[in-house]
Amino acid sequence: GVVNHLMGVKNSDELRAAHGEVQGEVVKTTTKLSQSEAVFKALEALEKDGSLEPAQHRIVQSSLSSMRLSGVGLQGEEKERFNANRIRLSELSTAFSNNLLDATKAFSLTLTEPAQVDGLPPSALALAASRAAEEGEEGATAESGPWRLGLDMPSYLPAMKFLRDRSVREALYRAFVTRAGEVNAPLIRQILQIKQEQASILGFGSYAEVSIERKMAPSVEAVYDLTEMLLAKAYPAAQKELQQLTEFATANGFDGAALALWDVSFWSERLSEHTFGFEQEELRPYFALDNVLDGLFGLCRRLYGVEIVRSDGEAEVWHADVGFFKVLDEASGEHLASFFLDPYARPENKRGGAWMGVCVGRSKVLDRKPVAYLTCNGSPPVDGKPSLMTFDEVTTLFHETGHGLQHMLTKVAHAPAAGISGVEWDAVELPSQFMEN
Questions:
Q1: Gap between the Cα atoms of 163 and 149, Å rounded
Q2: Are 68 and 37 in contact (CB under 8 A)?
Q3: How many CB atoms lie within 10 A of CB 163?
Q4: Over the stretch 407-432, which tens digit does the pLDDT of each residue have?
Q5: What torsion, rounded to 10 degrees, do the Cα atoms 222, 226, 229, 230 define?
Q6: pLDDT value of position 226
Q7: Which of 400, 424, 429, 436 does the annotation list as catalytic?
Q8: What is the CA radius of gyration of the chain?
């Protein structure tokens, strides 16, 4: 819903407090519905109705399966324990996310010596100086510093790929992989314990068996078999590539016994430059956000026959950088769907990663058109200059647009099966991979 969306993109102490006050009651309400015997019996009767459309039949089957996994068949003490665990899992998940955001926001590394930022491209230097200025370092410039690095992707990734100072890369890497570790490790253990208990209450041997009930994969064993097959094929190639990378690094000045984890990205980038004869930074001038959107929307027009138009001001947004767009049928001009695009990183109140969220799902009965949230954490504009994206950021935007298009261009009239609703989670990545590649 809207509140959970805002928790991810505009987090604040006030929102956390409001969310915490109602979280338990929301879980209780959804649990009560999912455990309703009257609803379950009605769905069982509908399942036998031969007049249902295929989408309706799938909705009924999916709902019955979901209700079974939500404890509709439980009674007495088991039911009470199961429901209490659902509330606790919700609380632990929220706490985990908040801790991770807080740790990311709290860390910064301010560098004052030019040698410490040697190798960092101009775009990253400008961002680092801008952030130092925001934190009170008067007169900070890209050329002379000081420079403030963080753990959000627009700051962290360039540092790991380009900084020549190995000690700085190590400090950043260790900070990144241990974010909120001390506070979240106990939460992880609790989550694992409770999920195992939930699985046992439902009659499963493990939580993996519960999870697989909602997936296309036929069994946990099938997942293990696929993983082992991929490992057997990929591991020898990975070993060979690491050996080649180590030899290249050694021939070009690396004097360590072995590449550490904070060395791999740096030397991989150098090997790529050596092999292909250009630097990724050279692509950035071609990838101003507006240019990328023009290309993306043109592709959507050619592939799907839709016109995407910017419609800022027609819907309330949570940040000035957020854009609002309408999706129109190219031939008729009919308004099919809409979406919000939140393109830039904001480590102070926005979680990392990229995702497509459902704002409004399509429903013929309720006369609703789909609305999506497309959220990325790309490089923000600096010093009044437009955002120049990396190729990886462009790929991510296309990926999330693939999810958004599945949600927005769905032909299914019934909300529980429209768009990504009701799609198994090990199949939902197909449209995103199509657009990405």
A1: 11
A2: no
A3: 23
A4: 999 999 999 999 999 999 889 999 99
A5: -170
A6: 97
A7: 400
A8: 25
